[in-house]
Amino acid sequence: MRHPGGLYTLFLVEMWERFSFYVMNALFIYYMTSPDNGHPFLQRYASIIYGLYLGAVYFMPFPFGIWTDLQLGYRWAIILGALLMGLGHVLLAFDPLPFFFSGLVCLALGNGLFKPNISTLVGNLYPPNDPRLDNAYTIFYMGINLGAFLAPIVAGIVRVHYGFHWAFGVAGIGMAISLLLFLSLQHTLVFDRRDKIEVAEVVPPQLQWNRHTALLIIFVIVALFWLGFKQNGNTLKLWFKDHTDRTAPWWWPSFLLDKQGQITTEYVSSINPFFVLLFSPLLVLCWTNLRRVGLEPSTPAKIGLAMLLTAGAFFLMALGGLAGGNTGLVSPGYLLGAFAIITTAELCLSPIGLSLVSKLAAREQRSMWMGGWFAATALGGYGSGLIGSYWKIWDKSSFFFVLAGTSLFAFLLLLLSYRYLLAAMPTRATSQPSLGQTTILAENSSATALTKVQT
Description:
Blueprint: H1 5-33, H2 40-44, H3 46-59, H4 61-72, H5 74-92, H6 97-124, H7 133-162, H8 164-185, H9 205-229, H10 235-243, H11 271-292, H12 299-323, H13 333-360, H14 366-388, H15 396-416, H16 418-424, E1 428-429, E2 440-441, E3 443-445, E4 450-452
Antiparallel strand pairs: 1-2, 3-4
Helix pairs in contact: 1-7, 1-8, 3-6, 3-14, 4-5, 4-6, 4-14, 5-6, 5-8, 6-14, 7-8, 7-11, 7-13, 9-12, 9-13, 9-14, 9-15, 11-13, 12-13, 12-15, 13-14
């Protein structure tokens, strides 16, 4: 079945918004730790500032999601959020610290209005229990990562030739494009699904309570995932700059080198989105083929797999720390391998998680619970900065072993709550439900020892 045109509108809008976000993200930790920025305060507290910023960025969708549900509405939340983020990027283009921190505040507030509502609009395009929804969020996630892949390349080129502040200004251009696309193509979107309430699944109060409880458990698990994953904007960048051999291969274009003739540091931020773009269609194909034969893992099982993979990625990085004696340069293969593994983990968890919130949350509270997903991300983001403050204190192998341990703990938590989570998963309709009628398909697979009952 084809996807509605509004999905591709949201793909483009989110691609350019994420382009702006990841231009800033590619520069952020390097700007704060640079001895040339003239701000010793930033240099000293870079990791803490990074964690507080991420925490604010991903927490603000929660209160703003409630405001959107109660009063503001999706359209105006997205427009106001885009304007605030654009202002934030413009403020970062100026050097004084008051401009810098004001810009961070605007970005956090704007993201709180923009991000959860764009994600919710994807779910609004589809009727209840539509089997296309998981794939829709994966396509949407590819738009996010196309913008994220291009952003560090542009950021690195502009920073090398014109400096940090001009590069921060480029992010504002991306945000302006995103807003213009939204305003011109909003007629393809669905802002209110009340016209289709008659075909919605009627959920008993106890089941809805169980579903919300399941979301809370999942939020705890994903917070621990983001605690590790968000090191890609902090300590993994510092690892690439200080502990990875950045000698360019012979085929590397010269305009993508820094002034020392090495691979520009910002380009490490393109590795994860590159793998997302490469692996996403393969993973969609894998899940689709497994679904056809009744072997697709349940959503909780996919999240559990994500946590095991995350632990494996940081175990590999710990080996890299040991190989380099915790201080020397090592092959980029350690970082590339870790990114390949943790990206696979991300694809098992993040787009599926957005879809899961859309399925489990009560319809009238969907933006609030989508905000809750981002609040869990906020806790993980703040934790990533907090643990990142030990980067210069612990040896590098120990640092990565700790992150492997937090991921294994999250896997254990999921294992203990697996049956409860599985029981809360929604059912899949075999056809479009008619008024007062829903046909349910339950797929069981003894080969995987999992009972699959999901959309």
